Amino acid sequence: MYAIRNEDLESDTDSNYEDEDELTRIIPPEVEDTTDWVKARHILGLLGFLGFANVYAMRVNLSVAIVAMVYRNTTQPNNNNTYDHCVAPNSSNSTQPPNEGEFNWDEATQGLVLGSFFYGYVLTQVPGGRLAELFGGKLIYGIGVLMTAVFTLLSPIAARYNFTLFIIVRVLEGMGEGVTFPSMHAMLARWIPPLEQSKFAAYVYAGANFGTIVSLPVSGWLCSLDFDGGWPLCFYLFGFTGIIWFAFWCFLVYNTPSSHPRINPQEKAFILASIAPQDEENNIPIPWLKIFTCVPLWAILITQCGQSWAFYTQLTELPTYMSQILHFDIQANAILSAIPYLTSWWCGILTSIFADWLLSRGYLSLSTSYKFFNSIASIVPSLGLLGVAYVGCDRVAVQLLLALPGAFAGAVYAGNQMNHIALSPKFAGTMYGITNAAANMCGFLAPYVIGRIINERETLGQWQLVFYLAAGINIGANLFYVAFASAREQPWSRSQRMNSIN
To answer: Are 176 and 154 in contact (CB under 8 A)?
Structure first.
């Protein structure tokens, strides 16, 4: 694919290539990169990382704050000696959540509150990607983070004033965050050379893991303070942080290398020589029918759905399993919930560096690299979930199976995450919006299906079904990806670019 871009576009015919691997081997550009330590694309990466850290901190804080917001009945059923339950360890200093709170919300109402974010989040995925292609990723990504921050600041006020208003604010917050991933994808397509894409995506998108790691303990600590009830503080802190971030983003980041007034000319020449021609025609019509009938795009969509099912099983349901079945106290539960994100963060960066090294040496084609690392990201964490189901009440083994196999989920950055750019650089944002919207529907579906499986039967047997289902869906979706994924730029994408240039 990238070899074609570095050659004459007039020779762009499918008949010249019979081997997918040969087609998708990357040819390094002849232009040398600048030797500057801090480059313009590094600034983009740092602020993109901090932007995702902010929006994920603002997304996760409600999961912690709702414990302090809601009046809780601390009476626990005694299942210690019941078949298919784990015996609770004897501990005199077990920390229990306070029997306090401003809102008398039942479990169904809390589920509505936690899920309302995703209604808005799914809604703006595709528009966010397309708007970034039309008006630039800087504007759309920046407004998305700012909008998320503003409605985060308004959340405590809305919650105390009116429940319906609070739900509306959460939906609007989700709409703001929904544009961030597809708009950043559109920016990466214009800024990052192919040999750096896996590593760069790992750095930028790992901000989501970093924000989760920070938000969980910080939000828990803020909720324990006496000032204003404690829980509003985590909304105020991360909301103000998002607004401060927006100011830096506006002054330091630009849509393309060509529009950056302070970029080193050598870096700009290197980027432009490395990636596809960056025509400035933004009003090219989108070939919707060809996009929706593109089998390699469906391969990305399906594997992202499988990975998201496993992710949301872990994010939304695993804390309940650890509390109800394994009897971890609230403080231990919060810390253990953050560990998989920490290991995934570091593993994602290291794996992506390794993937880019393999590509630069020519050991793997781009297509093989995507499929290999996506398989690692899907299969190894799924084996960890199967292990959690197998070990049952062994608390130490569960912790290890969450932290170690779960770390390999970070290999997704070298897997399907950059595949959209390979299929069509021009429409990468729109395509990412399509697949990410579908994947995040699992934010509704997985908790609903799990709720139907558990159905107030908190037993090891029922929870094992949950883990088997998540692992099976994830592995099966990856098999579809391996069979049908491609790193070859699609003919309809190349024809659109050539027509715009001619």
So the answer is: no
- Radius of gyration of the chain, Cα coordinates, nearest whole angstrom: 23
Beta strands (DSSP E) in 416-461 are none
pLDDT band at 80 (very low <50, low <70, confident <90, very high): very low
Q: Report d(CA 398, CA 403) in Å as an integer.
A: 9
8 A C-beta contact, residue 21 and residue 365: yes
Please say whether the beta carbons of 388 and 23 come within 8 A. Answer: no
- Any idea what the Cα angle at residue 413 is, between residues 301 and 296, rounded to 5°? 30
Cβ burial of 15 (10 Å; 0-12, 13-18, 19+) is exposed
Q: Name the residue type at position 68.
A: A
Nearest to 426 by CA among 500, 484, 481, 502: 500
Inter-residue contact 310 to 67 (CB < 8 Å)? no
Cα–Cα–Cα angle for 196, 198, 204, rounded to 5 degrees: 95
Provide the token pair at 452: 């139907």
What six digits make up the tokens of 72?
């809780």
Residues 6+ apart with CB under 8 A from 276: 5, 425, 426, 489, 497
**DSSP string computed for 317-377:** IHHHHHHHTS---HHHHHHHHHHHHHHHHHHHHHHHHHHHHHHHTTSS-HHHHHHHHHHHH
What does the alpha-carbon distance between residue 451 and residue 374 come to, in Å, rounded to a whole number? 29
pLDDT surpassing 60 at residue 9 = no
pLDDT (mean) for 216-236? 83
The label of the residue with tokens 């990201």 reads: 377
Do the beta carbons of residue 101 and residue 339 sit within 8 Å? no
Give 110: exposed, middle or buried? Use CB within 10 Å, 0-12, 13-18, 19+. middle
- Which is nearest to 149 in space by CA: 242, 283, 42, 245? 242
The tokens for 243 are: 């607004």
Report pLDDT digits (tens) over 41-79.
Answer: 999 999 999 999 999 999 888 877 877 787 655 444 444
**Within its chain, how far is the Cα of 250 from the centroid?**
23
pTM for the predicted model, two decimal places: 0.76
Tokens of 442: 């699992």
Q: How far is CA 258 from the centre of its chain?
A: 29
- How far apart are alpha carbons 338 and 352 in whole angstroms? 22
